[in-house]
Design a protein that fits this description.
Shape: elongated
Strand order of the largest sheet: 1-2
Structural class: mainly alpha
Number of strands: 2
Low-confidence stretches: 332-337, 379-396
Largest sheet: 2 strands, antiparallel
Mean pLDDT: 87
Number of helices: 19
Length: 396
């Protein structure tokens, strides 16, 4: 509040003077700011004010960038995992005569929204390509912290909103965009990574390619080509007759689904000119589609259907016969005494599904591609357990 600002400024002035006099102060300060961080269920103004003052402290104590940003991401991640999409949707459906369209009705979601808005604004000022608000070396430290925290924690956690910091920073900083995509591709192709991490990275890549309005078309095509080449190399080198269990080929199936998903979702851009249609032909997807591993049978049926509709319309591929045959044979199959439908073998993780927070969502909306076909086309199963995705969560 305006009344508190002068008092808070006095505190900042005192901390700044203490830092000038006693260089070892940051050691105890690091412990104290972590200890004092408000519990996520406290009043949102306390949490937002705390974040505001931590960011203000960086103006005169930039050597604490690593500690402060990691602390912020850690606590926002904690809030994010403690609120589900279903809770947000159910709370927003409740009618309220005094309703404010800018306020999330679920208190925890409102807290997260305000914090994300604060973080997005900070990154816009400090990390944009034309930013002069921070030293270049400090920018690099900030980016390293964000990448490190994403790699160590966010990538391995089922989050709904906090990972959009990567999406937003990529929109304001071109080098971050290319670095983020290259990072995901490295994860995907690294055989030393677990299958789960590789699958999740594939989901992030395909979801980003499908949703990012600011993505240059040459990058979209470049990664579609990389995905296609990887899949073609896989079927050439893999002796699938030795192991026909779909679980043994999960990364292959996830990459195939990523190709089908991106082509289906970005079909308007990818079919807009003869040059683009020629690009789709040059991807040479038919050997992948017709291969005995049968990726169309394992990916989500909705994605397979839309992919078939798009490619058949422009005479690129004709997959309908394969899809009909798959549908007729889609019976329960037993693998190692567990029952699975084929489409359940590949977890369908699309992290950049619609952003649900209102205030911070105003920054995402202009950067974001909404699917322009049938809104139920991409209804899919939730990536963790048996929860179903709702319409807002689907790629619609």
């Amino acid at each position: 509040s305006p009344e508190l600002q002068p008092k808070l400024q006095l505190v900042h002035d005192m901390v700044k003077k203490a830092l000038d006099i006693m260089p070892m102060i940051p050691v105890s300060l690091r412990k104290q700011i972590r200890f004092e961080f408000p519990y996520y269920k406290q009043a949102n103004f306390r949490i937002v004010a705390y974040i505001h003052n931590l960011l203000q402290m960086l103006e005169y104590c930039p050597n604490m960038i690593y500690d402060v940003l990691e602390l912020l991401l850690e606590n926002l991640l904690r809030i994010d995992v403690n609120v589900t999409r279903e809770q947000i949707e159910q709370s927003e459906e409740v009618e309220d005569d005094d309703e404010d369209d800018e306020v999330m009705k679920l208190p925890v979601a409102e807290t997260l929204d305000m914090c994300m808005e604060k973080l997005f604004e900070y990154f816009r000022v400090k990390l944009a390509d034309d930013s002069t608000a921070v030293d270049k070396s400090d920018q690099q430290v900030m980016l390293q912290v964000i990448f490190h925290y994403f790699d160590e924690h966010i990538l391995k956690t089922y989050t709904k909103h906090i990972h959009f910091v990567m999406f937003y920073i990529a929109s304001v900083r071109r080098s971050f965009l290319t670095d983020f995509l290259a990072y995901l591709w490295t994860k995907i192709t690294d055989r030393n990574q677990s299958t789960t991490v590789r699958q999740t990275a594939i989901g992030y890549l395909s979801s980003f390619l499908a949703r990012a309005k600011f993505l240059p078309q040459e990058l979209l095509k470049n990664y579609l080509e990389l995905l296609s080449v990887w899949a073609q190399d896989y079927i050439r080198s893999c002796d699938f007759t030795k192991n026909k269990n779909p679980k043994a080929h999960i990364v292959f199936y996830a990459i195939c689904q990523a190709i089908f998903y991106v082509v289906a979702f970005r079909s308007r851009d990818l079919t807009r000119s003869d040059h683009n249609l020629q690009f789709l032909l040059q991807l040479d997807l038919w050997p992948i589609v017709k291969h005995p591993l049968n990726p169309l049978n394992v990916c989500l049926p909705a994605i397979a259907t839309i992919f078939d509709n798009v490619t058949a319309k422009y005479q690129i591929l004709f997959c309908h016969t394969i899809i009909v045959a798959n549908a007729s044979k889609r019976l329960t199959t037993v693998y190692a005494n567990d029952q699975h439908r084929p489409e359940e073998v590949v977890e369908s993780v699309f992290p950049f599904d619609p952003y649900m927070l209102k205030k911070s969502g105003r920054r995402i909306q202009p950067l974001y591609i909404e699917y322009q076909g049938n809104e139920d086309d991409f209804e899919v199963n939730s990536p963790r357990g048996s929860q179903k995705r709702t319409r807002n969560e689907s790629v619609s």
